[in-house]
Amino acid sequence: MLVAVGVLFGLLLLATYVFINPPPRRLTQEDIDAAVLHTLENKAVPSTAAKAYRVIRPSVVRVRGTGPVGEDGEEGGSVGSGVVIVDQGVILTNLHVVAGAERVRVTFADGQESEARVVAARPEMDLAVLRTATVPGGLVAAALRSTADLHPGDQVIAVGFPFGIGPSVSAGVVSGLGREFRSPEGKRLLTNLIQFDAAANPGSSGGPLVTAEGEVVGIVTGVLNPTEQGFFVGIGFAVPIESAAAAAGVPPF
Q1: What ranges make up the beta strands (E) of 26-97?
Q2: What is the pTM of this model?
């Protein structure tokens, strides 16, 4: 009799516990979809370009070459972009940005400036390697990524200083691979280029072309334009990072 009462009491306790603490309901696909939709409607999600920009921004620099003084008494010069590939102040840019310059100055992401010198050049790829005289503390080198798995249609972001304005970011896709382009500045036929449609203009030269993850796959080198105005019409070219890193004597991966 006592045993039966004890069993009944135990069952009563168990029933009470289950009533107070029901087992969790199994989630369905509808539950998951509703939760995702709620998050998208109530929380701003950073764009792909914004996330890539945050990653690459600390490594992007403004490059300015100055001199010589022209017949009008004005100092000549050019403005372009560059990207830090070694945190000791080694920077990749385009050769046409610094060609003929008497002095080269670099402005880092934190606003610090430094004199720089050309330590290597690859005219056949319109590339120059700079080394700065001073290096800011905590300088961040960009992550480099192989173009082996890059395909037309992949998202890419270009970051630089078009017309000296920036840093500016533009987004687009890879339009083609293995392209050829005759540089109006270097007067050379450049080959095996990445074609892209992210906006680029004079001053963007030397800046990084990066993936959605902010990894550098190319160095922006030129734009195709049927006019003499120099503005962007949707066809830009970048040197693959494998070639660019080789110019610096740096194993890219």
Answers
A1: 60-69, 75-86, 90-94
A2: 0.79
Reply yes or no on whether the pLDDT at 24 is more than 70. no
Q: Is 126 one of the catalytic residues?
A: yes
Catalytic residue, candidates 78, 96, 114, 183: 96
| Bridging pattern class, strands 216-223 and 236-240 | antiparallel
What domains appear along the chain, each with residue ranges and CATH number? 52-132 (2.40.10.10), 155-247 (2.40.10.10)
Active-site residue flag, 33: no
138-150, pLDDT tens digit by residue?
A: 999 999 999 999 9
- Token pair, residue 172, equals 């687009």
- Cα–Cα nearest to 95, from 61, 62, 124, 67: 124
Instruction: Enter the DSSP assignment of 144.
Output: B
Q: What 3-state DSSP class applies to 71?
A: coil
Query: Is residue 197 among the annotated active site residues?
Result: no
